Every structure is written in C-alpha cells, then in structure tokens.
Amino acid sequence: MSVADKPQKKSGGLGETVSVIIQALLLALVIRTFLFQPFSIPSGSMRPTLLEGDYLFVTKWAYGYSRYSLPFSPNLFSGRVWASEPQRGDVVVFKFPPNPSLDYIKRVIGLPGDRIQMRDGQLFINDVGVPRVKVGQIDNPDITEVNRPVDVYRETLPNGVSYDTLDLTPNSIGDNTREFVVPEGHYFMMGDNRDNSNDSRFSVGYVPAENLVGRANIIFFSIADGASPLEIWKWPTLVRGSRLFTSVH
C-alpha cells in the first residue's frame, strides 16, 4: 500500500471541539490574568479623561501581580510579586479597600510618605501647590453630565504629568480637606471630576499596593447614552468615534 493509499485519520467530532474550546478558554484566562483585562467605565468620576460607556484595556503586568490579579481573587498569597511602583499621574484600576469585590478607577496623586491636601480647589503635595490653569469650558453634556458650561483646569504634577479636571461646583466639600499623610505601601487616589468622585478624600481612603489591578492603557470602544456595545444598530449615532483606540493619560 502506498502512502496515498493509507487510511486517513478522521478529524473533527465532539471531542476535538471540546478540546479547542478548552484551549481557547485557557488562553483567554492567561491573557486576562497576566497581560490585559478589559474594563468598562460605570461612573463619571474620571470625566473628562474617561466617560461612562468607555471600554478600555488595563495592563496587568504594569505593577506586578497580587491575588487581585487572579479571577475571583483567591487568597493564595499576600503582597505583590514582580512588584513595580506606580508613577504619580497613572490612571489605575484597583480594588475598593472597604469592599474588594468592587473595581474602582482613579488617578494616582499621592505616593507613600506624601502629604496631600486640597485648599480652595487647588491640590497641594508636600505643602507645594500643584500648578492649576484654567484652559476653558466644556458645554457638552456627554462629557460633563450637566446642561451648562463647566470650567476645565489643567493640572501638572511634579513629575510633569498633565491632565484636565472638571470644576462642577465651586467650594464643594472636596475643595478643602485636612492634610492626608500617605502610609508606607499605600497610595492616594483622586478622580479628575473633582466635585463628583468618591476617592481617597472620602470613603476610598488610602489604597494598599496589594489592591492595584493594573494601569489603564487604551480605550478600544466607546458608546454614549448608556447603550450596550452589543446594540450594533445604535453604533452609527452613539459610538464616540474620536475616542476609539486612544491612549489613557
């Protein structure tokens, strides 16, 4: 019998299909655990940088790995492995300290040992005011969530990272705070929407390094008005095309 005459092994069938599905799930699990994880933005606390309806990828290896890097956060170990410090100004996904089942996203403002305070709407780090310059107004409810013009201020942190913040309400409760001293192994987080953000000034408190999940990297999809990305028929009018595949900074 020649080679061409040998019986061919049958392929396909339920067993092979199951095997392919299992391999795909394992690959997805590895990517989600160690490389990238998708997140959606559920609130307006990071406006104008991030909007409700933004979908983004978070880089998991940016700060090393903790038990919160794993699905369901099993208590297998404490602390972080291959740890790397976040930089001031990074936009970070982390587990809400009072309830680690919840994911929060804010900007790193204070590093361990820093003294943080808000005075009349200006941020002070180690008793030095962070430069805050009014750059204009936004009159777009999709960005501000209110039907009126909102002042926008550009802040520049000591390491040169700049970003825009919203000033929805003059003399709000978060515009004047006590001085916070960031403990070792913790970080002070704030939202860019300063008057509408539950962050380290309030119930979030200091965020332990172990609670960091990853650094926000890129917006891969964005849709307005609370629509689902699965509602494809709404894409022509609701997809925010200018935000697709833009970096988060």
Describe this structure in words.
With 249 residues, the protein is mainly beta. The chain has a single domain, classed as Umud Fragment, subunit A. Helix content is 12%, strand content 31%. The chain has 3 helices and 15 strands. Strands 1, 2, 3, 4, 12, 13, 14 and 15 form an 8-stranded antiparallel sheet that branches. A hairpin with a 2-residue loop joins strand 5 and strand 6. It is globular, with a radius of gyration of 22 Å. The model has no long low-confidence stretch (mean pLDDT 90).
Keywords:
mainly beta, Umud Fragment, subunit A, eight-stranded antiparallel sheet, four-stranded antiparallel sheet, 3 helices
In short:
By secondary structure, the chain is mostly beta strands. The chain contains three helices and 15 strands. It has helices spanning 14-35, 141-144, 235-238, and strands at 36-40, 54-59, 91-95, 103-110, 115-119, 122-125, 128-129, 132-138, 150-156, 162-167, 180-181, 186-190, 207-208, 212-222, 246-247.
